[in-house]
Amino acid sequence: MAGTKVLLLLALAVVPAFAANYDISWSNGGDYSSWASDKTIRVGDTVTFQYVGGLHSVDEVNQADYTACSTSNTLSSDGTGNTVITLTQPGTRYFVCGTSGHCGGGMKVSVPVSAAGSTPSTPSTPSTPSTPSTPSGGSAPTGSSGTPSTPKSSPPNAAAGFQPGKAVMVAGAFLAGGLALLG
């Protein structure tokens, strides 16, 4: 009987915890208004904002401040370059760039988060927001002044939503529970 419990616990321990990461190339001149429209983002997933630190920031705000592009009541702020946000509860999260004028230029995104489900999230290929049209006689923005950067490719496991660290934590929790039952 004890042997059966151990085998069952070991079988459960190797089941990985699935979570997805969604990349956002965070730059001014982009349109993030429909970024989440083709995604099912769940509790446990992460969003990685990829940008040039010092030029931009990722400020989390409430819905009213998101609508008004205000950063006077930020919930959190980071300007280091690659900001990773872990989505820990269902609901909509709101993010804006705190650099003056950037939010008003479209550098803001709302992220609807669904409750965790039994089916793992599968992120689409990292999206690059559309750039504004070029005024007649002008030239298109380039470099860090406006063109969204191409995101770095993720390791194969990250693209599939598998996070080895979470799998190890789940395995440890199952093993600890199993040892408590046996001991």
UniProtKB/TrEMBL annotation:
Show the PROSITE patterns listed in the entry.
Answer: PHYTOCYANIN
Q: Which residues form the Phytocyanin domain?
A: 20-115
Signal peptide per UniProt: 1-19
Q: Which UniProt keywords apply?
A: Glycoprotein, Metal-binding, Signal
**Which cellular components does GO assign to this protein?**
plasma membrane
Superkingdom of source: Eukaryota
Coiled-coil stretches: none
Q: In the record, what terms sit under GO molecular function?
A: electron transfer activity; metal ion binding
Q: Provide the residue span(s) of the region labelled Disordered.
A: 114-160
Composition-biased stretches, type Low complexity, lie in 114-156
Q: Protein name, please? A: Phytocyanin domain-containing protein
UniProt source species? Colocasia esculenta (Wild taro)
